[in-house]
Write a structure and sequence with these properties.
Number of domains: 1
CATH class: Mainly Alpha
Number of helices: 2
CATH architecture: Orthogonal Bundle
Largest sheet: none
Strand content: under 5%
Radius of gyration: 34 Å
Helix content: over 70%
Order of helices and strands: HH
Distance between the termini: 49 Å
Length: 140
């Protein structure tokens, strides 16, 4: 069943490649979420400093505007990577289903082949038994 073996191996390689791509996207997504959280943490620290020190209050406005822009960029990056990751998940599901289809078909073919061999062996054994029975009858 060489063609199936080759097809299954190729499908497994493609599935592994898609899984690696998905893992890289999920790592990228985790990094983007961590970056977003770092922006929020930094904003909280700066708000605390601005309330404690009135001289820092005048610089807080431009800083807050920049934080809003950074937050929007981080949110856009997260959304884009989430879309890519979802598409990659769909590709992994499709590749996995395809691989399973090939494996099931291969297993069915092997089972049919084994059944066919068993049937041929049984026919041969039946013929041998009939010949032995005839020889036994001829001797009597």
């Amino acid at each position: 069943m060489k063609p199936f073996d080759t097809l299954i191996r190729l499908s497994e390689q493609q599935l592994d490649e898609k899984r690696r791509r998905l893992a890289a996207l999920e790592d990228r997504l985790d990094g983007a979420r961590a970056q977003r959280q770092a922006i929020e943490d930094e904003l909280e620290r700066e708000q605390g400093l601005a309330t404690e020190d009135s001289s820092a209050l005048f610089a807080y406005g431009p800083y807050a505007a920049e934080v809003i822009r950074r937050r929007e960029r981080a949110d856009a990056l997260i959304a884009a990577v989430e879309r890519e990751a979802e598409a990659a998940r769909d590709e992994v599901r499709t590749a996995f289903a395809e691989l399973k289809r090939y494996q099931i078909t291969h297993d069915k073919k092997l089972a049919e082949l084994a059944k066919s061999r068993a049937a041929k062996e049984q026919i041969e054994l039946d013929e041998i038994a009939q010949q032995l029975d005839r020889r036994k009858d001829d001797r009597l």
